[in-house]
Amino acid sequence: MPSPYQNLVFSCFSVVLLLCTTNASADLDGSEIFVSNARFESENHKAASVRQIEKFKLAISTGIGNYFHDILSPDEVNGANIVAKPLSEIDISNIQSWDNISQVNDIFTSGRDSRFLILDFEKALDKRRISWMFPEEGCFVRAEVLKNHIEKLGFPEVKKLFVFGDLGIESPNIVKGNVTWWYHVAVAVKVDDKMMVIDPSISDDKPLTVAEWSNKLSSTPEDLTYSMCDADTFGPLHSCTNPPRFTAYITDFLQAIFLRLESSNLVTLQRDPLQELADNPPWKTAPKPGTLPFLHPLKAPDDANPTGNIGDVYASFNGDNETVEYYQLVALDVNNEYAPLPTNQEDNASWKYLGDNYPVDFNRLKGVGKIFKRVHLFSNQIDYFRQVKLGPFSFPARFPQNEQDSEHWEYLQTTRN
User: Fold this and answer.
1) Which architecture, in CATH terms, is 75-265?
2) What's the number of CA atoms in the CB half-sphere (13 Å) around residue 409?
């Protein structure tokens, strides 16, 4: 679903991955601190997905509007958007039926609650659920990951149900409160001669009939069109009837993007991702603000009381480009107050811009003599540096651009896998 999240999504690919060891004499492999992609189940998937990833990178660099559609060539004859029709014309007679609604309820609960996604960049949570609490983006990835999950559990056939039209929802999980789309997709299964939609991003308490799902997505459901597609149909432009199958590698790679967004989104909403992404999601307990022990205390700027502690990190939602941005308070004026946050992603007298990546606990990265890895996401290159001097505000300084020493870093070696 296209949106202006280009900067935040693109950062997942341009970000330098930062890892470190605990002491200077430790092995160069180091302990993981911060990376941005998922730990994938099989390296065999990687080789099979290189060309898809390159197309994905190219699509992102040329604009978020079709950033995933061009991973595969659009099908101009049988694309999901091309074959869409009114709901009354959708034929489900040849779809394999599940045994009973209890099966559907069981897989709904499993797909909503199971934490089976492992993220290398996030050490506070061992595993994550599908990104149901970030409904703004990524429906196509959520549906694909859920489909794979259902297949692994040995359940009967599923379909991808695409809907097109004037769509939108209101949700407490959206910073702006609402979002609109031109299409949406979810997993659907047949039981008792009707289709049931499994979409916890829209309904987190139960599976929905297609009519119930449509009513939540649009105030004019009678104007919507639908495509009941093969389980492997990935996006709205891809073949509805004979799509190529995506590897688990590329699917997990994409899901990692939206899991990062989900975490950052909860911070912006002043809720506690350590609680809600772990054992206390909102469908079990009411969302509540909380502390983030592995981060600096994250706050929102307060124009009515513009003061704070030097070193605190603040999260801010930038409405112009719809990204979550992070700033560290570095100075107060003579009245012990801070200046307004910059609007241009730069520093000012009070604030240091930290970027739009979910901030790690920089205290864990302090220490002269620690060895760090710089991992290049797509080239399999790893550069090793020893920290010889702390940077501004006692944080690690930027790595040198090339494989060389700097004031803050001693270059050690480079490896290529």
Assistant:
1) Roll (3.10)
2) 23
Residue 166, classed as helix, strand or coil, is strand
Name the token pair of 289: 């603000």
Cβ contacts of 117 within 8 Å, gap of 6 or more: 38, 127, 128, 129, 130, 145, 252, 255, 256, 259
In sequence order, the 6+-apart residues with CB closer than 8 A to the CB of 46 are: 40, 249
Of 298, 384, 269, 411, the C-alpha closest to 20 is 384
The crossing angle, in degrees rounded to 10, of helices 139-152 and 248-268 is: 120
The CA distance from 291 to 293, in Å, is 6
Closest CA to 84 of 184, 212, 187, 217: 184
- DSSP notation for 291-326: --TTSPPEE---TTS----TT-EEEEEETTTTEEEE
Contact of 2 with 64, CB cutoff 8 Å: yes
Per-residue pLDDT of the chain (417 residues; tens, 9 = 90+): 433 232 323 223 222 223 333 233 233 333 222 222 222 223 333 333 344 444 444 443 433 334 444 455 678 899 999 999 999 999 999 999 999 999 999 999 999 999 988 765 455 566 889 999 999 888 999 999 999 999 988 888 899 999 999 999 999 998 888 889 999 999 999 999 999 999 999 999 999 999 999 999 999 999 999 999 999 999 898 999 999 887 776 777 778 878 878 887 887 777 878 788 888 899 987 654 443 333 334 566 777 788 888 877 777 766 565 466 778 888 999 999 999 888 888 899 999 887 765 444 444 455 677 777 776 544 567 778 888 887 655 556 777 877 889 888 888 888 875
DSSP 65: G
Structural domain spans, the chain: 75-265
The closest alpha carbon to 30, from 386, 388, 417, belongs to 386
Residue 214: name the closest of 169, 176, 173 by CA. 169
Pairwise CA distance, residues 72 & 59, whole Å: 11
Q: Sheet containing 31-34: give its strands across.
A: 31-34, 17-20, 371-375, 381-387, 409-416
